[in-house]
Amino acid sequence: MSQISITEEVLTLEEVAGYLRLPLETVERQARQGRIPGRQIENDWRFLKAAIEDWLRSKDSRLALIEQAGALADDESLPELRRTIYAARKRPETEK
Amino acid sequence: MLPVNAPKQKNKMYLLDTDTITHLHSGNLKVKERLIKLDDPEVGITIITQVELLRGRFEFLLKAANSSEILRAQELLRTQTLLTNLLIVPFNEASVSQFDRLKTTKGLSKIGHADLLTASTALANRLLLLPEICGIFAPFLV
Question: How far B134 CA lies from chain A's nearest CA (Å)?
Answer without folding.
Answer: 11
